[in-house]
Amino acid sequence: MSYNTIIEQGNFRVTTAGTYAAGTILPKVIPCRIDPEWVEVWNYTQFGTSTQYAGVKYYWQKGMPQGAALADYHAAATSVTNSYLMTAGGIYVVDTSKGPIANNIIDTGTSNSTTPTVTTSVTTGVFAATTTTMGSIVTFTDATGALPVNLGGFDYEVGTVTSGVSFVMRWAASTAFAASNLVTPTGRYTVRPFDPIFYPRSRTILNIQGTATTGTTNTVRVTTSVSHGYTVGQEIRLHIPAICGSIELDNIVGTVVAVPSMGAFDLDVVDNTITAFTFPTAAQVPCTFPQAVPVGENTAVALANNVNVLGDAEENQAAINIVLGTGIGTTTIAGPAGTVGDPTTGDMIYWKAGRSFSNN
Amino acid sequence: MSNMLLSSAARINCVGGVNNDSPTELTSDDCDAAIQSLLNANAWTIQDFVEAENKFGTAPVRAAYLALASTKIQPDLEKVDGFIAASQYPSPMNILRTEWGAVRNLRFHLSTLGSVIQNASLRNRDVYAITFAGLEAAACVKQDGMSAKFIYLPPEIVGGPLAQNCSVGWKMAQVCRIKNDQWIGNLMCTTTI
After folding, report:
1. In the A/B pair of chains, how many CB contacts fall below 8 A?
2. CA separation for the pair B118, B110 (Å, rounded)
């Protein structure tokens, strides 16, 4: 199939608003509907400087492996540029409507915690969350049963990542998941490339707390395993299996009255005198996990809070993205996502992507 | 539509199977759970019953809710207690080509386009979503003037100086929407093979 030649271009600065958090450069995601066949990236700030390991130019074309790039960079602290064939940490083109991007082994296990720490030497494709952006979504699997079985079978969002060592889950369950010690590494985590592609999404519930937490009568705070994306005014139906307690909330529809964090929302309910909630234990698996299901919008609440009355509108959020990687280590080569993050003086990156009339 | 339902509709995990996974393979009890969730919400059935006839090897088929699934669940579906193959319907002339059979009040339609989540079960198997629905549970809204358009442009317009090429494309704008969340859901299952 051939298309006419299409080119897109743009630029961004590496800032705390998107690609720089806690001293770490994050991958830069650029939606690019044309499904590019080639991508060029220039680091305007580092061009002609003497910053060791900083890249100045990157190139990727279809046919090269995902994450690869032909790079020019400063191998030493001089303005001389050298060439480098990146095999990872370079440029990726990701269709978020497609399948998982990694199915990695967990080396030694998971910790006893409501937000388990997962030890693994392979953290490829696992990104940390920031205060405004989601972390990677993973699902846990284990062919032998060495992992706590109630940790598998649902999507779970990553909070922090220690590259090549471990990552920690972001949102806390009502009770701690049991620790696992994998003598033979059989546990796996699968990185989901993206959420289910349509918004609003149903979510697995990790915890439900009452007035003592919300500070308001007749409200409950619901914590989900992945950032929910719900907004004030949306109506949510709770599906609570009998094994979880809080059975009084089963099949109840409430309106979101507050969003205290990306992973929690406060729901108004008629009466919050509820039985304590317990996330399913390992002994109760297999089971249906508790869920929050978006069912509509309370227009009056949305208007009263001056928020979008169409907050529940169905939207396909799948995208074809260019992902600019973060390079290889700290002493080899920086990635096309830049080297220095700052709101005003961070690296300025220019990019150009396109698809060609003909491919030979 | 299937992607929207996978994102937004409630899920029931199959738990009655014996494949030591979470969710398990499809069983009769799991079909009952799906039927119960629709029945208790007063959902109407979509397909009419098929009346019994005096024919060998046939059985009457109840009025049924729709169950849409991947072709990969076919071996397990055939093992479910009470399964009636479409060929055993007394009057099979009105069934759709996708229909594989029925389990009590669920009639199963299989397609390779059925929803699947790769490597998502506890034992690293693919998880299949069997979307079950009652009448008018969901709808597809099309905007005026933006239903599917097939667009052909001849070489004289887009083919360049030598008119060497033409172009063909399509565009459409629509949105899928659940009308009553209690009349639809996803029965999540794995397979035994």
Report:
1. 105
2. 18
Q: Is A190 on the interface with B (CB under 8 A)?
A: yes
Domain count for chain B: 1
Q: DSSP letter for A289, please.
A: P
Contacts of A288 in chain B (CB under 8 A): 11-13, 15
CA-nearest residue to A145 within chain B is B123
Question: What per-residue confidence (pLDDT) applies to B77?
Answer: 95
Min Cα separation B63/chain A (Å): 26
B142 assigned to some structural domain: no
pLDDT > 70 in chain B, percent: 100
What CATH number is given to the structural domain containing B119?
3.30.2320
Shortest distance between the Cα of B18 and any Cα of chain A, in A, equals 10
More confident residue, A307 or A340: A307
- Cβ contact, residue pair B4, A314, below 8 Å: yes
> Which residues in chain A touch residue B120, judged by CB atoms under 8 angstroms apart?
139, 141, 153, 190
Asked, for residue B10, whether it belongs to a domain, the answer is: yes
Distance from CA of B179 to the nearest CA of A (A): 9
Residue of A358 and A94 predicted with greater confidence: A94
- Main-chain phi, psi angles of A214, to 5 degrees: -75, -30
- Name the residue range of residue B91's domain: 2-137+180-189
How confident is the model over B78-119, as pLDDT tens digits?
Answer: 999 999 999 898 887 778 889 999 999 999 999 999 989 888
Tell whether B159 is covered by a domain.
Answer: no
Q: Between A317 and A50, whose confidence is greater?
A: A50
CA distance A60 to B15: 46
Say if the Cβ atoms of B7 and A198 lie within 8 Å. yes
Secondary structure of B114-183 as H, E, C letters: CCEECCCCCCCCCEEEEEEECCCCEEEEECCCCCCEEEEECHHHHCCCCCCCCEEEEECCEEEEECCHHH
Say if residue A1's pLDDT is above 60. no
CB contact under 8 A, B123 and A237: no
Is residue B25, in this structure, part of any structural domain at all?
yes
- Is the pLDDT at A100 greater than 70? The verdict is no
Q: With an 8 Å Cβ cutoff, are B7 and A196 in contact?
A: yes
The HSE-up count of residue B154 (CA atoms within 13 Å, CB side) is 1
For residue B24 the two structure tokens come to 């398990």
Interface ipTM > 0.85? no
